[in-house]
Amino acid sequence: MKEFCGEDFLLENPTAKKLYDWASKMPILDYHNHLVAKELADNIGFRNLTELWLKGDHYKWRQMRTCGIQEKYITGDADDYDKYLKWVECCEMLIGNPLTQWCQLELRIYLGITKPLILKNAKAIWDEAQTKLATMTCRTFLEKSNVYAICTTDDPIDNLEYHQELKTSWPAVKVIGNFRPDKVMKINADGFGDYIAKLSNVSGTDIKDYDSLMIALEKRINFYDQMGGKSADHGLNEFQFIPTTIAEANTIVKKRLSGQKLTEEEFFKFISALLLDLSRIYKKYDWAMLWHINCLRDNNPELFKKLGSDIGTDSTAEGFLAKPLNQMLGILKAEGNLGKLSIFSLNPNNWDAIATLAGNFQNNDDGIKGMIQLGTAWWFADTYTGNIMQIEKFAELSTLGVNIGMLTDSRAYSSFARHDYYRRILCNLVGEWVERGMCVNDDTILKRLIEGICFNNAKEYFGY
């Protein structure tokens, strides 16, 4: 019987172990996460496992509620050790859930602790972790994982001062801002006018219509580009592609800035125009786009009122945007304005459609490999079976050798262990194919494949 999350975790054959030996040596380029540049600049530490694991991790909060744990032990003011014990209690029920596997990997990789995270070991693990965490900071986790670069999620109005500071105070790891204009896309949200006032101020642009809004956004994209940014991230959950004129777009933005809410048709006309024009600008700057789709957010009104967003009340959406996305990408392609794009869907039922959509638009004169991609298994799909399914879909419907690989999408500094988890799954799956005679057994080819998916492809794709 194998050790729980031991040295050969998920590696079921000799070929898998050989492939993992190559994979484990590769750096990490984590091209989408929610880490905070200020915390890295301040080089914060963690007093205990509660601060490391439970402070802001809504993945864990969600499961704790499912286990019947009271909110005071989740987001409330209970003692840190009591919160930790409640999490360990929950772990004993989470058999088969990746959260327990990730925690066990994190204990082993970063703290050298191999005891199973169960209640009878809880006090010993807490004490040993506390002693070791006292000598560590948030940067330690990135250094131990051989992180080459991370891309944080930042708003157009952010000044990226801490990203700039980190270039000199901690050059060992590139900390890069990803441009995420979701607050612009949420044009019907309360507070939109106040946000536009801030965008006007930071861009030095009097935003009074759609034209001036796009001028302001391009100024901010130029700023991000000068700061080393090379990608933009969009949350896109509801979408109808309705072509519109600039005159109509100007009228729509003026209406909203006057305080009136938009109709559904006006909203989708605005989003259609905005996505087209932003895509054109990204292509000009040779940026990549990341689209995260099919998530229903903030579904529990009671908890949303008390705690706000990102607290563990989101879920997978059912629909897919195949027709409108194909229409929009077709227009951009015909203009010569379609650039690099990875589409991440929270719903695995969409992956066939995305992979085949990607294949429609790969032709380019720039030699870009996998210009349009099915994104990696994301959020609820980032599981053992989810990762296998995504890799298989990518291999069967696209070209596995151009896959840009894993991201954490995380707020936790110990979450880079998820790259190890993904690499083990990848190596075992490809190793199984080799052992079964389903693909060539050639070390040069296999090494290039594995090292590409783990790091080299993403580095080439983004250009960091």
Automatic annotation (TrEMBL):
Pathway: Carbohydrate metabolism; pentose and glucuronate interconversion. Its EC number is 5.3.1.12. The lineage of its organism: Bacteria, Bacillati, Mycoplasmatota, Mollicutes, Entomoplasmatales. Keywords: Isomerase. It catalyses: D-glucuronate = D-fructuronate; aldehydo-D-galacturonate = keto-D-tagaturonate. PANTHER family: URONATE ISOMERASE. The keyword Disulfide bond does not apply. Belongs to the metallo-dependent hydrolases superfamily. Uronate isomerase family. It comes from Spiroplasma eriocheiris. InterPro entries: Metal_Hydrolase (IPR032466), Uronate_isomerase (IPR003766). It holds the Pfam family UxaC. GO terms for molecular function: glucuronate isomerase activity. Gene3D superfamilies: Metal-dependent hydrolases, uronate isomerase, domain 2, chain A. This is Uronate isomerase. GO terms for biological process: D-galacturonate catabolic process; D-glucuronate catabolic process.
